[in-house]
Amino acid sequence: MKTQTKLGTRFWTAMIIFGLMGQVAWVVENMYFNVFIYKMFHATPADISAMVMASAVTAALTTIVMGAVSDKVGKRKAFMSAGYIIWGLSIITFAYIKSIMLTIVMDCVMTYFGSTANDAAYNAWLTDRGDSTNRGKIEGVNSMMPLIAILVVFGGFMSFNLDTHEAWVTIYYIIGIATTLIGVSGWFLIEDAPGLKPVGESLGETLTYSFRPSVARENKTLYLALLNFAVFGTSIQVFMPYLLIYYEKTLGMDDYVLIFAPAILLAAAITVFYGRLYDSQGFMKSILPVCAMLAGGYALLYFTRTTLPVFIGSLLMMAGYLTGMSIFGAMIRDNIPEGRSGQFQGVRIIGQVFIPGLIGPAIGAWVLKDAEMITNSDGTESFLPDAGIWAAAAAVLAVLVITLLLTMRNRATKAPQQEF
Q1: Cβ atoms of residues 347 and 119 within 8 Å
Q2: Rounded to the nearest 5°, which phi and psi values hold at 202?
Q3: Among candidates 126, 110, 121, which has minimal Cα distance to 28?
């Protein structure tokens, strides 16, 4: 058994604060922008789906280009630090937005800077700094960040009345300033990998490298993992844009944070330790239990509406989601060719964000096209998400299990002598 490579306090400090703050910003976008336009502008399922899709397209294109550019210049630190600074400033602009359309446009602008800093540079930096002896540990900690971010955001938002515009102004200023300050800290904390060097190809060759058929043939395991990651993400994105609205409006749980927070804490603990299962047992033995957790969570959330079953279902769903992100993340990083991590962030984001962001919300919007409508206090109407989103997510999950068994069962893992 290989001795685990030590990474040092400076690495872990930078990883945690950049990973956590990045996820806080993404949580606000992915879970609360939907609430923002729902509450402030009475958005429809189609509006929410359009915003998620536009952001997914922007994230994919940005990561493809900026990941390749960071490889071309041989730098991660500058893109991470400067990107977080501008990312934070762009978040503040949402305090002044007055319409759904402008929210969607500015969401794309914000996503450009966020994807440059986080999806492209930060993820390439994690790949640069890790190796086969510590990848599962890194991904376990990194994949815990979205859950911790959700807990931080939920806890912080409890003191705000989200039905008022003033509350959103304060929120956007707090998140924006914090993200900018993290970017400033990066100039002092982040160290690029010692072996990182500029790629000696033209920018055009660098941009297109990971899309070449010959590269796909040489890295079949990586591309098959990305295919399955896309199906996994699609299942999550069927319900995620509507999750908080479902808890608050459909289930009538005004205190859903108090129910959800313990589930998040437990799921975070599971995620930290679960990543090590990948290091010891390989991909298939660690990803199939993830599917079982998700299936159990979906079933409970579909069939029940009372507090305890919803809590257990939420725990299984969130644990399955985050452990799945951990396992797929480790598998993908382990199969990215050395020295080209930036160029492969584009195809990674296509599997992780672009395809799920296009298909998942569209499925959710289709399921909710005839959703029950309620009349607001001002006479306007809003839709109520129903339990059909869980059935649709489960159907996509069944497709994932089939594609996993068909494509990954007999493929070599990170160590040639091991099997899935």
Answers
A1: no
A2: -70, 160
A3: 110
Give the separation between CA 103 and CA 211, rounded to whole angstroms. Answer: 32
36 inside domain? yes
Phi, psi of 373 (to 5 degrees): -110, 145
Give 72-135 as a 3 state SS string: HHCCCHHHHHHHHHHHHHHHHHHHHCCCHHHHHHHHHHHHHHHHHHHHHHHHHHHHHHCCCCCH
Residue 227 has pLDDT above 50, yes or no: yes
Domain containing 355 — which CATH number? 1.20.1250.20
The token duo for 249 is 């409006």
Is 201 among the domain residues?
A: no
3-class secondary-structure state, position 412: strand
Dmax (CA) for the chain in angstroms is 66
Closest CA to 348 of 124, 164, 147: 124
Q: Is 141 part of any domain?
A: yes
Contact between 123 and 325 (Cβ < 8 Å): no
Measured CA to CA, the distance from residue 331 to residue 222 in angstroms comes to 8
Q: How many domains is the chain partitioned into structurally?
A: 1
**Is the residue at 2 inside a domain?**
no
For residue 84, count CB atoms less than 10 angstroms from its CB and return exposed for 0-12, middle for 13-18, buried for 19 or more: buried
Residue whose pair of structure tokens reads 């993908």 in the numeric block: 332
> Among the listed ranges 44-53, 103-112, 145-154, which one has the minimum average pLDDT value?
145-154
Non-local (6+) Cβ contacts of 374 within 8 A are 249, 381, 382, 383, 384
Length of the chain: 420
**Residue 332 structural domain:** 11-192+212-407
d(CA 88, CA 99): 21
Over residues 369-389, the pLDDT tens digits come to: 888 888 777 666 778 889 999
- pLDDT per residue as tens digits for the range 330-381: 888 788 887 676 678 778 878 888 899 889 989 998 999 888 888 777 666 7
SS3 for 420? coil
With tokens 């100039």, the residue in question is 187
User: Which residues have a Cβ under 8 Å from the Cβ of 26 and sit 6 or more positions away?
Assistant: 114, 118, 146, 149
